[in-house]
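Table S7 (text form). Paired inputs.
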Amino acid sequence: GQPDTICHAVVGETVVLPCMTTPPGELIFSESRLYWQINEKIVHFFHKGRESLKDQDKRFRGRTSLFLDQMKYGNLSLKISNVQLLDNAEYFCIYKQDEDHQTKKSKIKLSVLAPPRTEETPFPSGQSQTSSRSPAETPRLTVLPLSLHLLVTLGLWHL
C-alpha cells in the first residue's frame, strides 16, 4: 500500500521519520518492542525498555536515535543523521506490545536528494560557466578554438 507519510531530506542532513502511537496513559516499554526496518533489515530496535542495536544494519550504525524521553507518551519517531542516498527507502515503524499481542505498524517513505551543486564550483579549465550558453552548445564552443589552436601549433611545428 501507500506510505502513511513521505519525508524529504538532502544528503548530509538529519531527518526525523515520524511515528506516533496514541497510548492509553503511558506506554510500558519493559513489555514491548519497537522495530524500525526496511524490508528485513533492522534500522533500529528497542526491546524491553532499551535500545538493542547488535542486529542493526551496518550502514545505519551510529546514525540513528529515538526520542527516549518522549517515547512513553507515544513518540516512536526515528532520527537519522548524516543522511545518505542509500537511505532512500520505505521504512516501517512496528510497535508490538507483548501482553495484548497488539501490533501497530506504519510505513514512512524517505526521499533523499543529492546536495544542490554550488555555482562557485570552477570547471576543470578554470573557467566559470555562464548561463547564456546552453549545455549542448558548450562542448562545440570549447572544442573548436582548441582544435584551431592545435592545428596552428602543429602547422608552426613543421616549418
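Next pair, protein 2 of 2.
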Amino acid sequence: PKGTMAFSGKYEFESDENYDAFVQKIGLPSDKVEMGRNCKIVTEVVQNGNDFTWTLHFPGGRTTTNTFTVGKEADMETMGGKKFKATVKMEDGKLIAEFPNYRHVSEICGGKLVEVSAQRSRVVRKKQGKSPI
C-alpha cells in the first residue's frame, strides 16, 4: 500500500545532532544523558504489516522495547524509562509518535534509519543509523 515503508532491520548508531540541547530540554536525568551520549546503540526494527517491535540495544546488554500497531494506542517507554500511552501514525512513509514532551518521526532514507525528535520549544535532535550490520 502507498505510504508504507519497509523498516525491518538492524541499524547501528552513526550520528547524532543536537543531542545535549535536546535531552536537557526534555528533562532527561544527567546519568541517562551521559549514558546516551555517543553511545553505540543498535536499533532493531521488526515490522509485520502495521505491527512493529522497536528495540534499542544499549552497550552492556540493556534493551528498551516498544511494541505497537500503527493507528492503535500502545504502552510505550521513553529513553529515560518513563511509561506512557501513544498512538503511532504513518504519514507519507514516516512513523510519527507523540511522546510526552516531544514528537518523534522515523523514516528510511537511502537505506538508513533517520529519526528526528522535535521538542515543543523547537529544539530538534536528528539521529541516524546505517544498515545492515
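The chain has a mean pLDDT of 85.
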